[in-house]
Design goal:
Helix 3 runs antiparallel to helix 14, helix 7 packs across helix 10 and helix 14 packs antiparallel against helix 15. The protein contains 19 helices and 18 strands. The protein has a 5-stranded antiparallel beta sheet with strand order 2-1-8-7-6, sandwiched between helices. The protein has a 5-stranded mixed beta sheet with strand order 13-15-16-18-17. It is an alpha+beta fold. The protein has 3 domains: about 110 residues, no CATH class; about 240 residues, no CATH class; about 170 residues, 2-Layer Sandwich (Heat Shock Protein 90). It binds adenosine-5'-diphosphate.
């Protein structure tokens, strides 16, 4: 188990930080790439999903129509009057009135003469048109095209060529698993043939490759290939002219005799000037053939009744006739382009050019849904990236900060130890010399004592700094503020240091105002700030050894910087401005802000000569700010540095 102690031992190093960031960034990039590429395919994906659902609906409607056609045939077969006997003709007439499906009844003699409609009698317009279009066919002089499913025609080729391993396995398994009764059925050749046809049709419909091959083969064999009335594939090329696809029904010219040879009744589709019409025929006793041209109005009405769910909020499901006109359409959809369904299926060989079709109620729905989904994805991915970038930057910045602080603390400890050791060593050395009485000269002895004293002062200043820092850090430092003259304080301090500094070769100048500079301040704290500035000026000077201290009262200056900023109102009372200037090594511009941070030291060969802690200026600035003032480092013309302390003026002392 990982304990809190273990966790404490775990440290985030830069290397670990980078590994951590990469471990987040790389998988996120991959995930985002995948998400965005799927967003690009979103429209096609949604389209495909909807296509599947609608195709199932359309197919169900097509098979309902297939079943209904068989029912129509059976109904007509049942209701057709027997032509035997004398009342045959009147029965034919009454057949028409009894059924809404019967248009023009007909009766053929065994020698294929038209017994009815009777050319000798009065003929209505319907009968005349019927005879015009059908006479030659019914009398056996003209073969007519009879439609067949191309897949049924090329059944053997499809089953031989396109059978994949799965299908084969299925075929092998089925008979073994089937119940004995079902095996008998399977054994029945007619049923098997029907199953094979269905299997071929399925493969033809599902496999593009098979479809292509079969169409090519049919064309090769001189079959006439028809085109469909609609073009569902044009949905993605919305603007282009729809290109109807090849129809899956091909025709074969047969005479009535050929057609009636194998069955006892049936329906034959025929194209006339009025469009598609259906002929029902039935073999009667004595070699006669009776039948009728269907009343297409009644027939269409029946078929339209099979569209159970014409309209839903997402789609319209309907049947299209041979001219591509809907048998039923919801109100308000008149202007729709019915030739471009979303999905469509041809229905049956008895109804060539008819289609069961589905349309999207709102064609813009899929693109807008896809746009919405990919919009959401893009937004999420963008948020993810911004968060990763921000988080990564934060981690690395924190890490960098931590590392810098750790480095500064180490050098602080080294600095403090050195600072403590140097004065201690000299104090000890002088103390030992004095104790052993090795120095007979009184003057020298006094000098030693003087040196010991100043070293002790240096020590206590250093310790004071460290203590101050920790107190300031914890917000525990309290000030005893009183009104005092900052100019007088400067003068006392500088004069106190003058002798020592001049002995070290420094030229010291002091420029003070006539009047007192009244400020509200803690005297000790203010002394600490000024002494720190003076000792820095001393420490960071090389050959050019001059220190200037200036103090004045200024009005109209902002808290930060030397010039009033436009639009900024300076504090009404003005400032006591104290500057400590030197001609030392100066502070490069890029470090002028940073030197006020705790532990920060300019890292170059000139500075490293001087041992320090990097604490003095940060404490000094904190004190200045605690007094409502500021401490800044300004560039100085001619080299060196200028530290400027501003404290708010407080009336008179
Ligand atoms: P310390 O002097 O102990 O390093 P300070 O906080 O007083 O700490 O100073 C921070 C840094 O600022 C110093 O290390 C030095 O690099 C720079 N600095 C301060 N005063 C001066 C100055 N008068 N001239 C040049 N550099 C200075």
């Amino acid at each position: 188990m990982i304990t809190a102690k273990d966790m404490g031992r775990f440290r985030l190093t830069p290397r670990l930080g980078i590994i951590f960031v990469l471990a987040v960034v790389i998988p996120s990039l991959v995930l985002a790439g995948l998400a965005l590429s799927s967003a690009a395919r979103e429209e096609a994906y949604l389209e495909k999903r909807l296509e599947g659902t609608l195709l199932a609906e359309v197919s169900a409607l097509a098979s309902r129509i297939g079943v209904a056609l068989e029912e129509v045939r059976a109904e007509l077969d049942k209701s057709a009057p027997s032509s035997a006997g004398t009342g045959a003709l009147s029965a034919l007439r009454s057949w028409r009135t009894r059924s809404d499906l019967v248009g023009v009844p007909f009766l053929l003699s065994p020698a294929q003469e038209i017994l009815w409609p009777d050319r000798g009698g009065e003929l209505g317009a319907q009968e005349r048109s019927f005879l015009k279009w059908n006479e030659e066919f019914l009398t056996g002089r003209l073969p007519v095209p009879v439609y067949q499913n191309i897949a049924a025609v090329y059944k053997d080729e499809i089953l031989a060529g396109g059978a994949g391993p799965e299908k084969k396995a299925e075929q092998e398994v089925q008979p073994e698993q089937a119940a004995p009764a079902a095996q008998e059925v399977l054994a029945d050749s007619a049923v098997r043939a029907k199953q094979e046809v269905q299997e071929a049709i399925n493969r033809f419909e599902q496999q593009e490759e098979v479809r292509k091959k079969v169409f090519a083969r049919a064309e090769e064999q001189g079959q006439e290939l028809a085109r469909r009335t609609v073009s569902p594939s044009a949905k993605s090329q919305a603007l282009s002219e729809p290109r109807p696809e090849a129809s899956m029904f091909i025709s074969k010219s047969l005479t009535l005799e050929d057609i009636t040879r194998e069955a006892s009744s049936g329906l034959i589709p025929r194209f006339t000037a009025d469009g598609l019409s259906l002929l029902f025929w039935k073999k009667e006793g004595g070699g006669r053939v009776a039948g009728c041209a269907l009343d297409m109005g009644g027939f269409q009405k029946r078929m339209a009744g099979l569209i159970l769910d014409l309209y839903s909020p997402s789609r319209i499901l309907t049947l299209l006739d041979e001219r591509g006109r809907p048998l039923a359409s919801p109100p308000g959809q008149e202007s729709r382009d019915w030739r471009r369904p979303f999905v469509a299926r041809e229905i049956h060989e008895t109804l060539p050019r008819w289609e069961a079709a589905a349309y999207l109620t709102d064609p813009g729905l899929i693109p807008s849904q896809a746009r919405f989904r990919s919009g959401v994805l893009w937004a999420l991915v963008s948020i993810l990236f911004v968060s990763i970038a921000a988080g990564g930057t934060l981690v690395l910045a924190t890490l960098h900060g931590e590392m810098t602080l750790a480095r500064q603390k180490t050098s602080f400890v080294a600095g403090v130890s050195h600072e403590l050791k140097t004065p201690l060593t000299s104090i000890r050395m002088f103390a030992e010399m004095l104790k052993e009485g090795r120095q007979p000269d009184r003057k020298k002895r006094a000098q030693y004592l003087e040196l010991m004293l100043s070293e002790t002062e240096r020590l206590s200043r250093l310790i004071g700094n460290v203590l101050d820092f920790s107190r300031l850090e914890q917000g525990q430092r309290s000030y005893r503020k009183r009104r005092l003259d900052a100019a007088a304080l400067c003068s006392t301090l500088v004069e106190g240091q003058r002798l020592r500094l001049e002995q070290k070769g420094f030229a010291l100048s002091l420029r003070l105002p006539q009047a007192a500079l009244a400020v509200e301040a803690d005297e000790e704290a203010l002394k600490q700030v000024l002494l720190n500035l003076l000792s820095n000026a001393e420490n960071y000077s090389l050959a050019a050894r001059s220190i200037e201290v200036e103090a004045e009262a200024v009005r109209g200056l902002p808290l930060q910087g030397g010039l009033p900023l436009q639009g900024e109102t300076p504090p009404s009372g003005g400032f006591a401005l104290i500057r400590v200037l030197d001609r030392g090594i100066g502070v490069p511009a890029e470090h002028r802000q940073k030197i006020f941070k705790e532990f920060y030291r300019v890292d170059d060969s000139l500075t490293s000569r001087v041992k320090g802690t990097g604490l003095g200026l940060s404490i000094a600035r904190r004190i200045a700010e605690d007094h409502g003032g500021s401490l800044e480092c300004l560039p100085r013309e001619g080299g060196g540095s200028c530290f400027q302390l501003k404290l708010p003026l407080a009336g008179t002392v």
